[in-house]
Amino acid sequence: MAKSTTELLRRVRDLMENYYHVAAYIVPSDDPHMSEYVSANFERRAFISGFTGSAGTAIITKEKALMWTDGRYFLQAQNQMDENWNLMKAFMPGTPTEEVWLSENLFPPNKVGIDPKTCSVSKFKILSKKLDSVGLELVPVKENLIDLVWENAPKFPSADVFRHPIEFAGKDSLEKLDEVRKKMEKSLCGSFVVSALDDIAWLYNLRGNDVTYNPVFYSFAIITKDSSTLYIDDNKISKDIKEYLDGINTSIKPYDKVYDDVQQLSGRILLPLSTNAAISEAIPIKNRAVLMSPIQELKAIKNEKELEGMVACHVRDGAALTEYFHWLSTQVHKPDVVIDEVDGADKAQYFRSKEDKFVDLSFDTISSSGPNGAIIHYKPEKGSCLSIDKDDIYLCDSGAQYKDGTTDVTRTLHLSEPNAKQIDRFTRVLQGHINLAMAVFPPGTKGTCIDCLARLPLWNVGLNYQHGTGHGVGSFLNVHEGPCRISGGSRMSKHEMGLQKGMILSNEPGFYEKGEFGIRIESLVEVIETDIGPDDGKYLGFRTITMAPIDRKLVDVAMLTDEQLIWLNNYHAEVRDKLKKHFEEQGKSPELLEYLDEATKPLVK
After folding, report:
1. Which of 16, 79, 184, 215 has the most beta carbons within 10 angstroms of its beta carbon?
2. Average pLDDT along the chain
3. What confidence tens digit (pLDDT) does each residue in 97-136 have?
4. DSSP sequence for 134-196
5. Cα 378–Cα 434–Cα 417 angle in degrees, nearest 5
6. 365 with 320: CB under 8 angstroms?
7. Rounded to whole angstroms, what are the CA distances from 179 to 195, 226, 237, 251, 306?
């Protein structure tokens, strides 16, 4: 049911017109660190609109309220927003960007307001340039207007920070700081303002609980040639953590003090793309070096310990997911047993929670039956979700945080007999998944250049999917991590990092039939060196590290090439061997082992 926003919009418009004198107000999804997922107190766009997807930008004018979001969330946004809101389908033909819409619908000398702490330095520049070109003005509004109308808003998080041990981190913080300073020197920067929460957590080998499912903590950092300062609320730091930070020559200051201290910096200052505009605007233009964060580059290439942990946790995670699917396949066929989508998500979490080193989920489980599977980032809720239908397709996109790694896996299955259309679409998605898994490419190739391999089987019959094919994944960090990705060429970024040995990405093509079903097959892959290529540099490929069966009954073997069939059978053999060993060590039931054997049997033409 859509949230009623009429009164909230009236109050915001009153502030805009009578107190702040702006003709439009922009409400991004972002916190001061440009995080994809934010703590509850920063969910302002969701509060004002009712739309809870992780990506979107709202614009409020005197007469209109508009929401820009991407293809993952079109259906969700339509369902969650009331009649006050207009959906703007970002990246689709005919949809203007926010700055273009503003420039075409407002008139000089109108002003457009935004909280600069919720806007990145790069986005602020784009907005300012476009608005200036038509006589409009982008003005920073220090007080967030949504906060002013949000009664009983959640408080700023205050969870304790904890150590991420070297046995999992693989590299100590002093070594990381040294690597960062070398990158700073190469960029001719004497100071570096670190804003991204996962960058800070990685750099200091610390983790937190400020953002649900993301083991990060709200903080900033400033690194210079000879100093390191962490800006964080004191109530999050124990005596042991203070001693640890002191041991790596890092001082501690209050979280908000960063806005004062950046004004004292001199020389060339490295500001990553995730820096908010309130920080960047406090620094003279001549001193700003807006670049990709060197920590992102270092963090994206996992060290041996991190890779070891990622591989190990995916065996445990795949075992838990397989145990869930076995449970589900037996329960749904029992008379008078009703399992809804939330029950399914909770049961999957239960099985994961029994595995060694489990900490939490890595995102809300997308447990979706039938037509709900077509809502790409669907979140089931008690009272409105569907029962899992044994006679329809079931899509489960889930993952977990373990002390030694992060998982993200999607499997689509049919609990009885699929129809011809479902088999065809699933097989095409599987072909794309295998095409990408088997890809070989030169070092430094950008993911946008190989995205088409996953889409080609769908493109061949005029079909597609409205989301990226792959994203980077952190090591006991954010499940979505830049700067590497695999996505359509129309979204290519100059800041996208070429693929290199040691990166971890997802491989997740899909297909979505509105009102009917959704299909997605997602596994995480490690970028590895192959034995193919010239002597001066081996070409790269992928090793699939997710260990979970792919539903055989949805595969039309006749559509697969011989190479694709060999890959699938080899993958299932590896899954069977690793999970069987894990189950036997845990003393699991013969029925579960039989289910695993059946789920991973070789397919033949």
Report:
1. 215
2. 96
3. 999 999 999 999 999 999 999 999 999 999 999 999 999 9
4. TT-EEEE-SS-HHHHH-TTPPPPP-PPPEE--HHHH-S-HHHHHHHHHHHHHHTT-SEEEE--
5. 60
6. no
7. 18, 13, 25, 19, 17
